[in-house]
Amino acid sequence: MAEKAEAEYYSKDFEWEDLRRVVENDPSLRYHLTPFVSSSSCAAPAVEADAWRSFHRRHSAGKFFKERRYLLKEFPELIRISDPVKVLEVGCGNGSTVLPILRAKQNITVYACDCSEEILRKAEEIIATGSAISLVPRFFTFLLDVSVNDFPDWLFCTSCRRNSSPEPANFSSDSRGENLEMSHMSAFLREDQCCIGGVDFVTMIFTLSAIPFKRMPSVIEKCLSVLRPGGLLLFRDYGLYDMTMLRFLSEQRVGFCEYMRSDGTFSYFFSLDTARNLFLAAGFTEVELTYCCITSVNRQTGKSMQRVWVHGKFQKPV
Ligand SMILES: C[S@@+](CC[C@H](N)C(=O)[O-])C[C@H]1O[C@@H](n2cnc3c(N)ncnc32)[C@H](O)[C@@H]1O
Q: Which of 13, 65, 89, 132 is deepest in the core (most CB within 10 A)?
């Protein structure tokens, strides 16, 4: 019973359609809905990744860490498999998503990337102290600006991707990807392996919204490329008309449903249609896609806030 209540809490306190009607009929919010005429000023390459690096440097105490306890309720498939499971967390931050996944089951290994070296070290620190049983041997981090660079070959090399066999093909060590950091990777890549053979799950939890909209298609294609056939991409991110979207000022708009915070980080707010179009265009099939509409109350002010998230599961075709 308690489990059911928790699961429901993260899905529907109000109807998204009701919120849509209120927002779209409020003249003071109209600027969020008008078509956006792009200016060249926000198009500098990868500035948003720099902004995230600065963000993590400023918040190096890691106070922003909040374990996503609901994650396994929302994505129970992560713990349904008894065979070894490989998960890639894209934009792992300080490990809020990684920690509950690693703790859930011993058969899960998590590979995690972020564009900030500083936050990767923080995540490693948090994972090292996050459980009585050591999670460290099942947690591997690597630095990557996913909006600019490809995933390293050791995740799923081209030859194995082409064959798409359940086990990676054997190659000499010379064929391992250039990005391979041998000392680090030798911990989990056997001598006869050229790559780990792709991952079973990719998690993108509040990361895609941080990437400029025009770079999202290529990021999603890269995620598809490292998934094994039949693997799932688990997605959760800001939804259209979330309270934080409505707080942005007109001058903070950098695109349609896209905003830049004063610190230079980006935030995009997804409608179901936009999310669907992005993932399907990359080659995924849709398994689940809904709005999660949650009313949360600010303990200090007593004000209630209507939060909207998009929850999705997309599969790589077999
Ligand atoms: C809102 S946090 C989400 C962190 C984590 N997924 C979670 O569940 O808490 C977004 C993360 O994405 C990272 N990020 C932003 N742009 C990125 C990029 N281009 N490549 C890799 N990581 C990126 C940021 O550094 C940040 O840690």
A: 89
Give pairs for 215-223: CB < 8 Å, separation 24+: 215/147, 216/268, 216/278, 217/278, 217/281, 217/282, 218/147, 219/90, 219/146, 219/147, 220/278, 220/279, 220/281, 220/282, 220/284, 221/282, 221/283, 222/146, 222/150, 222/151, 223/88, 223/90, 223/282
What pLDDT was estimated at residue 266?
95
Token reading at 60 = 């190096």
Nearest atom, ligand 1, residue 147 CA: 19
Task: Using the structure block, give the residue that is written with the tokens 């996913």.
Answer: 146
pLDDT, tens only, 126-136: 999 988 889 99
**Would you say the CB of residue 266 lies under 6 angstroms from ligand 1?**
no
Homologous superfamily of 45-315: Vaccinia Virus protein VP39 (3.40.50.150)
**pLDDT at residue 66, rounded to an integer:** 86
Is the CB–ligand 1 distance for residue 97 below 6 Å? Answer: yes
What is the per-residue pLDDT for 2?
Answer: 43
- Does residue 170 carry a pLDDT above 50? no
Question: Tell me, what's the pLDDT at 1?
Answer: 40
Nearest CA to ligand 1 atom 9: 96
Query: Ligand 1 atom closest to Cα of 145?
Result: 20
Q: What is the pLDDT of residues 285-307, one digit of tens each?
A: 999 999 999 999 888 888 899 99
**Ligand 1 mutation pick, 114, 148, 263, max ligand atoms within 8 A of CB:** 114
Asked if residues 199 and 156 have their Cβ atoms less than 8 Å apart, the reply is yes
Which of ligand 1's atoms lies nearest the C-alpha of 55?
25
Q: Is 141 in the pocket of ligand 1 (CB under 6 A)?
A: no
For the chain, the domains span: 45-315
